[in-house]
Write a structure and sequence with these properties.
By secondary structure, the protein is of the alpha/beta class. The protein has 13 helices and 13 strands. Strand 2, helix 3 and strand 3 form a beta-alpha-beta unit. Helix 12 (320-335) runs antiparallel to helix 13. It starts with 6 loop residues before the first helix and ends with a helix. The model has no long low-confidence stretch (mean pLDDT 94).
C-alpha cells in the first residue's frame, strides 16, 4: 500500500478527524498516528459500548476534544485551537434504521453538522485539504445492475441516505461558492459503504451482529439475506481518503466527489457473507431470517470506482476473503484477551499500511 499512501506526506502533518471515536474514525486515527501525523480528534463521546476507540487505546497517540458538530461554535473553537492542515470530516449519524426513528437528529448531524465544519474551515487559517466522508447511499438508488458513478443524481429513500445526498450537495455548493480559490482550502468528498473490520460494534450492522452472536454462542437474526452490498475492509476506503487528501493538496482540480468501492465481484449477498464467516469461525455460526416488516432498505447497491483507479491510481488493497479472515481473527483475539491496540496496528502493518 506504500504506493497508495505517502508516509512522508503525513509525518508531522497536523490533522483533524471529526468522529474519531467511531469505528472508521478510530482506524483512521491509528493509521495517521502510525504515519507520524499530529492527530486531533473531535467527537461527541463514544458511539458504542464496547468501542474500538477504547479497546485499541486510540487516545494514547492523539489529542481529543469532546464536542458535537451540531454546535457550530464548538467545532469552530476546535479548528482554531489545533490549526489543522488537513481535515477529515467523518462525524455522522451513520445508521439507516436509526434514521427512521430519529430523522431530525440525522439531518441536523449529517447536513447542518457538515455546514458547521465547512464554516469553521472558512474562518480558519492554514487548512489546505478537506475530505468530507459521506456514503455510497448518497445516490438515488435505481436498483439497477451496475455501479453508481460520481455523476449520478443524489437522492435517498430513507432519511439517512437522503441526508448523505444532501451533504454531497452542500459540499458541491461550498466548493463552488467558497473554496474555488486555488490558493485556499481544497474540498473533496469520498463515498464508500459497507465497511467491515475488527472493532465494529455498530447496531443493526451485519458483521457486528454476527460477531456478537458468535461470541455469545447464539444464532444471529438476519433481515435480508439476498440483499447485495459492496463489502470491503475498512482499510480500503481509508486508503482512498488518505490518497485523496494528498492529491488535492497539490492539485485543486481533483477536489470533487470520489467513489472508493471494491471490484464488482466482491459485491456479495448478505447470506453469502454469513456463510463465509461461518467457514472461518472456529465454532458454528447459526443464523435465522427475522420476520418483517422492516424499514425500507435497498436490495442492490454497488459503486463504480473507475475514476479513482484511473486518475488517482487507487485500488482496494485488501481482498474480501482476507478482510473476512482478519475481521474474524480480530474478534477471536479480543475474546482471548489480546492487546487490541497492538493487534490492530499489526493488521495495518500486514495490509502494508505502515
Amino acid at each position: 500500500m506504500a504506493d497508495l499512501v505517502n508516509p512522508g506526506f503525513w509525518r508531522g502533518r497536523r490533522v483533524l478527524v471529526t468522529g474519531h471515536t467511531g469505528f472508521k474514525g478510530s482506524w483512521l486515527s491509528l493509521w495517521l498516528q502510525s504515519l507520524g501525523a499530529e492527530v486531533t480528534g473531535f467527537s461527541n463521546g463514544l458511539p458504542t459500548q464496547p468501542s474500538l476507540y477504547e479497546l485499541a487505546r486510540v487516545e494514547e497517540g492523539m489529542e481529543s476534544t469532546e464536542g458535537d458538530v451540531r454546535d457550530a461554535e464548538a467545532i469552530a473553537r476546535a479548528i482554531a485551537d489545533c490549526e489543522p492542515e488537513v481535515v477529515f470530516h467523518m462525524a455522522a449519524q451513520p445508521l439507516v434504521r436509526r434514521s427512521f426513528a430519529e430523522p431530525r437528529a440525522t439531518y441536523e448531524t449529517n447536513v447542518m453538522g457538515t455546514v458547521n465544519v465547512f464554516e469553521a474551515v472558512r474562518g480558519s487559517n492554514g487548512v489546505r485539504a478537506v475530505v468530507n466522508v459521506t456514503s455510497d447511499k448518497c445516490y438515488e438508488n435505481r436498483e439497477w445492475d451496475w455501479g453508481y458513478r460520481e455523476n449520478e443524481p443524489m437522492g435517498g429513500h430513507d432519511p439517512y441516505s437522503s441526508s448523505k445526498g444532501a451533504a454531497e450537495l452542500v459540499t458541491s455548493a461550498y466548493r463552488r461558492s467558497f473554496f474555488s480559490d486555488p490558493d485556499g482550502p481544497r474540498l473533496a468528498s469520498a463515498r464508500a459503504g459497507n465497511v467491515i473490520g475488527g472493532g465494529d460494534w455498530g447496531e443493526d450492522r451485519l458483521v457486528p451482529d454476527v460477531m456478537r452472536a458468535a461470541l455469545a454462542g447464539r444464532a444471529v437474526r438476519i433481515r435480508n439475506p439476498n440483499s447485495i452490498r459492496p463489502w470491503q475492509h475498512v482499510v480500503n476506503p481509508l486508503s482512498g481518503y488518505l490518497a485523496l487528501a494528498e492529491v488535492i493538496w497539490d492539485s485543486p482540480d481533483e477536489a470533487e466527489g470520489w467513489n472508493f468501492g471494491p471490484v464488482d465481484d466482491e459485491a456479495r449477498p448478505v447470506g453469502w457473507l454469513i456463510e463465509r464467516l461461518a467457514e472461518i469461525w472456529p465454532e458454528r455460526i447459526r443464523w435465522t431470517v427475522e420476520d418483517g416488516p422492516h424499514p425500507h432498505e435497498a436490495h442492490y447497491l454497488k459503486l463504480d470506482s473507475s475514476l479513482a483507479r484511473t486518475r488517482l491510481g487507487w485500488r482496494a488493497p485488501v481482498p474480501l476473503d482476507t478482510a473476512l479472515a482478519e475481521t474474524a481473527a480480530w474478534y477471536r483475539e479480543l475474546e482471548a484477551g489480546a492487546d487490541m491496540r497492538a493487534l490492530t496496528l499489526a493488521q495495518l502493518k500486514r495490509f502494508g499500511a505502515v
